[in-house]
Prior knowledge:
Elements: H1 18-23, H2 25-33, H3 37-45, H4 47-52, H5 58-65, H6 69-74, H7 79-88, H8 93-101, H9 105-113, H10 126-133, E1 145-152, H11 156-163, H12 173-177, H13 180-188, E2 193-198, E3 213-216, E4 220-223, E5 236-237, H14 240-252, E6 258-260, E7 264-265, H15 267-277, E8 286-292, H16 302-317, E9 324-330, H17 347-359, H18 361-364, H19 369-376, H20 386-391, E10 400-413, E11 416-427, H21 428-436
Parallel strand pairs: 1-9, 2-8, 2-9, 3-6, 4-7
Antiparallel strand pairs: 1-11, 3-8, 4-5, 10-11
Helix pairs in contact: 2-7, 8-9, 11-15, 14-16
Amino acid sequence: MSLEKTYKLVPGTTVFDAEQSAKGYHLNQFCMSLMTPENRAAYLADERAYLDAWPLREEQKRALLERDLNAAVREGGNIYFLAKWGATLGFSFQRMAGSMTGMTEEEYRAMMAGGGRSVEGNRIDRAVLEAAHAAPAAPAGQHAEITGAVFTSHVPAIGAALDHGRTGEPYWRPVFEGYEYSRAWERENPPDVIVLVYNDHASSFDLSLIPTFVLGTGASFGIADEGYGPRPVPGVEGAPDLAAHLAHCLVRDDFDLTLANELTVDHGLTVPLSLMFGDVEEWPCRVIPLHVNVVQYPVPSGGRCFALGQALRRAIESYEEPLKVQVWGTGGMSHQLQGPRAGLINREWDNAFLDRLVADPAGLAGVPHLEYVEEAGSEGIELVMWLIARGAMSDVDGSGEVEVRHRFYHVPASNTAVGHLILENHPRARRSAEGAK
C-alpha cells in the first residue's frame, strides 16, 4: 500500500478520498437532490422510481433501500451527504451512526453519554503501521513521464476563424502557418494525457465562486456556450485516475486546489487543442483541465505558478503507469481588452518574455504583477500560467535538459499578440536508459 494512503489501515473507518468520491459521485449527488421539499416528497412517494432516475449502480440502490449505511459508505457515500438522505427519512444522526455499529439508537446514545467509544482496541496494529512507514522498496515497473511543454495564446477569434473556414484568408494565414510545424510535431510525439493550464473567461465560473486553482477530475468535460453557442469541437475526455493522483499529491504538497468533477471548458482550452491538432472528430488524447484565476485580483504570482509546475512534475512522475504526459501553458501574450489603453501590444516585452522563459525561467517567475499589467496589458497577466508548464520541465532542478523545437510570434490576432513555443523534455534518467539500449 502507498504510504500516502495508510489511512486505509485504520479499523472501522472509511476515509473519503478521491477514489471514494469518484465511486460515489452520483450517489452523493442524489443525496444533494433531497435539499428541496418537492424532491423529498417525490422520493418518499416512490423511493425506487426516484432512485432509478439516477445513474446509480444496483449495489448503491440496494444499500439505500435496505437502509444499510455501511454498504452505502463502501459504495462511495459520504456521511455528510448521506445525512441529507437520513434526514429525509426522519432519522437522527445518532440513529444513523448507531446502525453502522450494530447498536440501536438508544444504545448508541447511552454509549455517547458515557463518554463515547474508546480509541483503545480501535487503533491500527503496530506491526502493520511500522511496515507501512518502512522505507519503501524501489517501485517496480514504469512511471508516467513528461515529454514536453507547449505554450500558446488562446485567442477566441482564432477559434472563430477555424470554425468558419477562414484560416486561408490573408489576415489569418500567417497565424495558422505558425502552427503547421506544431501539428506535425504532435503527430510524431503523441501524448497520452495533456495537463492543460488555462483560464476560464466567465463561462464556468462567475463572481459567485472565484477559485484560484481548479483541477478537472471528471471523466469528461463539455464545451461551454460563451454567448455565441458552443464551439463545434469534440467534447473533452478526462483522465480521472491520473487527475485524482495529481490532486492527492498536490494538496499534500500544500497547493490548495479546487476539484471539479463537472466542468464546461471554453476557448481558453479548446482553441489550443484546435491549433495543435486541427479539425478532428475527437481529440487524440485525454485532457486534464487546470484552471487558474487571472480574471479577478488577487491572482497567483508567477513564483507560485512556477512552484506549482515543479510540484506537478513530481506528482506526474510518481504515477505508476507508463503514460506520456505533456503540460500546456496557455493565454497571452500582450493584450489589453478594456479602458483607454485597449489594444496595447508590446512586441519587445513579449519576445523578451519568450527568451527568459527558455533561458531564465526562475528569474522570470519573480516578475511582479505590476510589470505584466504595465508592459503586457491588463489581460497579459495570463502569461503567469505559462510558468506552470515551464516549472514542470526537468531542467528546472538540474535533472535534465529541454530542447526548443519551435518558436513563433505574430501580431495581431484580433486584439492579441500570438506567442507559441514547444519545449521537449529530456530527463537524464531517460536519456541514460536510451543510451544503454
